[in-house]
Amino acid sequence: MKLLFITMLAANIFGCKPDEVPPVPHTEETPVIWSHRLQTSGSSSTPHYYNGNLIFGHPAKETNNYLVYCLDAETGDSIWQTQIKTPFIFNPFGKESSVLYDNKIVFSTRKRMFVLNADNGEILWKYTDPENYAGICIIDNYIYLADGVNYQPSTMYKFDINTGTKQALFTIKHGKDEPGGDFTPNLLMPVQWTHPSGDEILVLQNRSYGYDKIGPDGMFGYSKMDLMAYNVTADSILWYRYEVDNFSSGARPAIDGDKVYFFGGQTVYCVHAGSGETLWEYSIGTGNGDNFFDANVLVHGDKLIAKPNNSTMHALDKNSGALIWKNTDLLSMPSMLTVKDNVIWFSTYGIWAIDATTGKTIIEGHKGTSGSWIFPIAHHPTNGHIYTSDGWTFYCLDPKKLK
After folding, report:
1. Which DSSP category does 4 fall into?
2. Average pLDDT over residues 104-129
3. For the residues 334-363, what does the mean pLDDT come to?
4. What is the pLDDT of residues 373-403, one digit of tens each?
5. Radius of gyration (C-alpha) of the chain in whole angstroms
6. Which 8-state DSSP code applies to residue 121?
7. 387 vs 54: CA distance, rounded Å
8. Cβ contact 232:200 at 8 Å
9. Distance (Å, whole) CA 94 – CA 135
């Protein structure tokens, strides 16, 4: 599935010459409010609305250069632009690779992280890891990041977002006597829950691999979804659950009160943050969440929205797991889900909008150009405009005119 995603991504972004994908003209009939042509084709990061501006990143035309753009949300005029130069390709386009927190924006890839001042684009500090790591998340002024060392241990770190000070929290090791067994651990991004005692708890997934194990398909290479909770205050593991599922999405879990929601291979799990007990589970029936880019869970009001890597979207009662509605006419490989004014938005080779109450499709895969249209969507807080990229150009769009 990962190879399929990368192949389709390359075909959509790089399959045309720049003059074959012109921006949508600005007329009364089109939904385009403004557009900003990018230097080259590529993968745009998650866009973020901040103080009347849009901030996002995109590859520069020079090799191993990356541009962070800040554009006026009303006009598209440039407010500031920062160039990031690295020895190798830096392209933080995943859901957990670009995060806005207060007046700082963080861009991260498997080896490098940059923290910028969102007001002026100044690079405040940067970090390079000798090993690989996955995405990031930010909780209470700390950036969380987990690494992996030679397919053996995986350590969770936190960084003070203001100073860059790094602190190791805990390590899961490879070994028969370790919590995850003799599988290679891969800690993913946590959510935080406050225990009744006042202790701060991180709840997360160890998406571990058995490279020398034979999986259910009879092939070498076997993954499993272990779940765990780490007590930050007491510096100890609160609970650990071994092989809750054979597969999983790499997406960060959702949390609501003491309930934490994970996406397994074909199942959504609701577990109690304090005990790890499964409160309910819901099978999506078909499709596979085993993809770092795709399957999403999102809490909205009384619902848990689950978008697997197939053509469906499911709205579940967040307390019981009962199905409220299901839309079966969508596409697979969704970008990050967002909600604005009771409408669920995502991009999958076009812009999609789903009524959160009924599950009805409002906008069905709008593509204004032959670009990719697979990147996340940002929202203006008051006027309803949306912002996204087609891989060539960044757009401000009026949803009322999308078809």
Report:
1. H
2. 95
3. 94
4. 999 999 999 999 999 999 999 999 999 999 7
5. 21
6. -
7. 8
8. yes
9. 8
Nearest to 264 by CA among 241, 245, 286, 242: 245
HSE, side-chain direction, 13 A CA sphere, residue 253: 33
Strands, sheet with 361-366, edge to edge from the N-terminal-most edge strand: 338-340, 343-347, 351-355, 361-366
8 A C-beta contact, residue 368 and residue 32 = yes
Tokens 């078909």 found at: 286
Q: What is the DSSP string of 163-181?
A: T--EEEEEEE--STTSTT-
What DSSP string runs through 125-149?
EEEE-SSEEEEEEEETTEEEEEEE-
Closest CA to 312 of 283, 332, 338: 332
State how far the Cα of 372 lies from the Cα of 227, in Å rounded to an integer.
35
Task: Give yes or no for a contact between 27 and 35, defined as CB atoms under 8 angstroms apart.
Answer: no
Burial state string for 41-75 with b = 16 or more CB within 10 A and e = fewer than 16? bbbbbbbbbbeebbbbbbbbeeeebbbbbbbebee
Structure letter (DSSP) for residue 5:
H
Q: Which residue has the tokens 């999958």?
A: 348
pLDDT over 60 (residue 303): yes
- Which pLDDT belongs to residue 15? 40
Residue 73 near residue 385, CB atoms below 8 Å? yes
- Among 149-153, 253-257, 312-316, the minimum mean pLDDT is found in 149-153
Mean pLDDT for the chain? 89
Concatenated DSSP letters of 235-284? TEEEEEEEEEES-B--SPPEEETTEEEEEBSSEEEEEETTT--EEEEEE-
| DSSP string computed for 8-30 | HHHHHHHSS-GGGSPPPP--TTS
**15-19, 102-106, 179-183: range with highest mean pLDDT:** 102-106
Alpha-carbon distance values, 349 to 330, 368, 372 (Å): 11, 11, 6
Q: How confident is the model at residue 340 (pLDDT cuts 50, 70, 90)?
A: very high
The pLDDT tens digits for 246-266 are 888 888 999 999 999 999 888
Q: CB neighbours (10 Å) of residue 123? A: 14
CA 371 to chain centre: 21
Q: Which of 357, 317, 316 is nearest to 339 (CA)?
A: 357
